[in-house]
Design brief:
Length: 152
């Protein structure tokens, strides 16, 4: 049974935080879906991941390519990930179901701590998932480093 980890971003952006989480997830041997809600934003994330330093290369693809099923990291817009993801990372408030949390090794929900709508969406997701019996952790970077603030 997996768990949902909520990442409240206050010191860094999704573009800065995502590579670190992707690296750790790949090191755990997981296949990853990064799920957003707008194609344009996922294209922006794709470009950001490709433009990182060579030593931090993260093999990935944007959904709709010829080799989606082979991608270790697949950026999607709500489609069912063709790569058989064992880890789902939600950005932009993309929905994640309790069933997905239960079936995945890990679900990560990243949200901007300075965006009121993103905060409200994360609170709804926390309540929905924990009310359904999913294990969840809330991580914040208010102090400048990641600290676990809550667990349910």
């Amino acid at each position: 049974m997996g768990a949902a980890f909520f990442y409240h971003l206050t010191q860094s952006s999704v573009e800065q935080t995502l590579p670190m989480l992707l690296e750790k997830s790949r090191a755990a041997g997981w296949v990853i879906e990064v799920r957003g809600s707008h194609r344009g934003y996922m294209e922006q994330l794709d470009r950001a991941l490709w433009s990182g330093p060579p030593e931090a290369f993260l093999p990935h693809g944007l959904v709709g390519g010829d080799h989606d099923a082979d991608q270790p990291i697949l950026l999607t817009v709500g489609e069912t990930a063709a790569n058989g993801a064992t880890c789902v990372m939600s950005v932009q408030g993309a929905d994640v179901s309790p069933q997905e949390v239960t079936e995945a090794e890990r679900v990560c929900i990243l949200f901007d701590g300075y965006d009121g709508d993103a905060l409200a969406k994360a609170r709804v997701q926390w309540k929905t998932l924990t009310d359904a019996g999913c294990s969840a952790q809330y991580w914040s970077q208010d102090s400048g480093r990641w600290e676990k603030k809550a667990e349910k």
